[in-house]
Amino acid sequence: MKKPTLIDVGKESGVSAITVSRALRDPDRVSVALRKRVFAAIEKLGYVPDAAAATLASNRSSVIAVLVPSFSNYVFSDVLAGASSVIEGTKYSIQIGNTGYSALTEEAMIPKFLTLKPAGIVIAGVDQTEKSRKMLKAADCPVVQIMDASDDPIDVIVGFSNFQAAAQAVAHMVEQGFRRIAFVGTRMDPRTQQRMAGYRSVMEEHGLFDAALLVTTPQKSSVEIGRHLLGSLLDTVPDCDGVFCNNDDVAVGIALECHRRNIRIPQNMGICGFNDLGTTSQMQPAITSVNTPRAEIGARAAQYILDRNAGQPQPENRNIDLGFALQVRASTQRTA
Fold it and tell me: For FRET with 57, which of 19, 234, 261, 314 sits at 20 to 30 Å CA-CA?
């Protein structure tokens, strides 16, 4: 059976092959009614666009490469959902790479994605190797770093300050009367290290910093590891009265361990998480957490790539800070 062509789609939808090509390459340049006719014809005939030919014609494919450190982390699931909501109904598609929190793995993956001639690249954080930065700066496509803030992005960055978010959370705990506040962190990726730096700055400012209150592990985050780390913390610092956690999994684990040990929250232990993924608000008592705009970050990153591919210039402000919101709940409220 003969493979349908652009000409066949044009005849079926009553337009020229050039118009069909335009509808596929840049749907926003044709009317909604015409677009529906073209796509109805494509579905009826079973036409499959030649991606390689389209790439040669435009010097870019319709692929948006997204490099994230984890597939299982709900933070990046939300980012991907946000990006997908923007490209839905367009010619663009997302291809995902998992760097496993390794800058060297990321460095090895970048040239493989560049061979696809992507429409754009979304990449987590600002901790790329020098070689990775050079490759990304030389890439013939928009590059969006996410989930962080920087005055020197490769192209643009969409995110928030992990340092400031942590500092605001810890300052709140100090205001509520907590004094022996520990930092509990897992994985210790660069974003977690920025959160630890924010914690430390506030504790030092108030004369409360004690290195014994820093509890970290290279292990990945989980509720179980949160329970274990609280036990280790209380073995060495029994007068600890608060914990700022690098994420919500750890915070939930610490809360469960407090319940097991009959430690009252917040009377004897304050707990604050990070990212506000949903579980924290459902705990009893509900856990304070820093809400981060994960889906919006993904959406803004994808929209930037679409805008640049449509010919719009790079924005004057290349550090797009979407901020954060401290969701104060019962776990840290000692005073009215």
Answer: 314
189 phi/psi in degrees, rounded to 5: -70, 170
Residue with tokens 């499959």: 48
**Range of the structural domain that residue 255 is part of:** 162-291
Q: What is the mean pLDDT of residues 322-331?
A: 98
Selection from 68, 289, 103, 77 nearest residue 195 by Cα: 289
At 166, give phi and psi (nearest 5°): -65, -40
- pLDDT tens digits, 156-208: 999 999 999 999 999 999 999 999 999 999 999 999 999 999 999 999 999 99
153: domain CATH number is 3.40.50.2300
Q: Please tell me the pTM assigned to this model.
A: 0.82
- Tell me if 328 is assigned to some domain: no
User: Comparing C-alpha atoms, which of 268, 257, 266, 247 is closest to residue 184?
Assistant: 247
The count of other CB atoms within 10 Å of the CB of residue 159 is 30
- The residue whose two tokens read 């914690």 is 199
pLDDT tens track for 264-283: 999 999 999 999 999 999 99
Do you find a cis peptide bond into 266, omega within 30 degrees of 0? yes
d(CA 318, CA 181): 35
Span 136-156, average pLDDT: 95
Is residue 58's pLDDT more than 70?
Answer: no
| Same domain, residue pair 70 and 142 | yes
What does the pLDDT read at residue 56? 46
Whether residue 113 sits in one domain with residue 26: no
